[in-house]
Amino acid sequence: MLRPFASLRAALLAAGSLLLIGCASAPIDGPRSAGGQGASTAPLLPSLLFPGGAERFEAWRCTPQQDLVTAFGERELRLWSAHGGYRLAPAVVASGARYQQGELSFWNKGGEAVVESANGRLDCTAAMARSALTREQRPGVMFHGRGNEPGWHVNLRHDAPELRLVLDYGARELSLPYRVVAMDNAGGRVRLASGRGEAPFELRLEARACFDDMSGEPFPARVTLTFEGQTYRGCGQGIAPQSSSIR
């Protein structure tokens, strides 16, 4: 879906590694249990799967060809590309708004933006915006993912390691326990597997720019579900409690 900007790839990855190392000890947007994480408690998800307090996601079409997703919060900009997610801090600028971390910077004014690194530049235009999902809209859900053809979606409960699958345009619904197979907080990657041997599945979440393949709406995560020999691909986002101050 996304075509990487070759001349910026190395720089984005290099700058991103610095950013993500800094994120490893940052607060996570997922729920916390007073008694600590256990078998009956939903795991904490990487912060880069969440909007970080932003109210909406924006899609950017850039030249040379690459698509980006952003979420503007009060204290930072979250930026997702085909290669991963990044967190940029506000920087002083005479006009417009500028965010920077290491050699990676994002400047925008109105519907135009420029992304720069040591190896090159992207000239971007705002294409579409989508309001971030909230707990009010998805009660009890800490991550929502969905895809098309056939229509499906998955919700991870905020209080227990359990997910709800809705498949085949709503014709099938299942609630299944899961276990964490791999968790990379810095890289924004999670791999979950079924907690029931008779109903195996694998769910992968990755903090990367994602666009709904029917509507074009922007998301901060790519979702891959493997179930009953079939692979489903789509987009998703983490959903933090509205009352939470965690960013």
Topology:
Layout: H1 6-23, E1 56-63, E2 66-72, E3 77-80, E4 85-91, E5 97-101, E6 104-109, E7 112-117, E8 120-131, E9 141-147, E10 152-157, E11 162-167, E12 172-184, E13 189-194, E14 201-206, E15 210-211, E16 218-219, E17 221-227, E18 230-238
Antiparallel strand pairs: 1-2, 1-8, 2-3, 3-4, 4-5, 5-6, 6-7, 7-8, 9-10, 9-18, 10-11, 11-12, 12-13, 13-14, 14-17, 15-16, 17-18
Structure in words:
The structure is a single chain. The protein has one helix and 18 strands. The chain is mainly beta. The chain has two domains: about 5-130, C-type lysozyme inhibitor (Lipocalin, Beta Barrel), CATH 2.40.128; about 140-240, Lipocalin (Beta Barrel), CATH 2.40.128. Strands 1-2-3-4-5-6-7-8 form an eight-stranded antiparallel β-barrel. An eight-stranded antiparallel beta barrel has the order 9-10-11-12-13-14-17-18. A two-stranded antiparallel sheet has the order 15-16. The longest helix has 18 residues, at about 5-25. Residues about 1-40 and about 245 have low confidence and may be disordered.
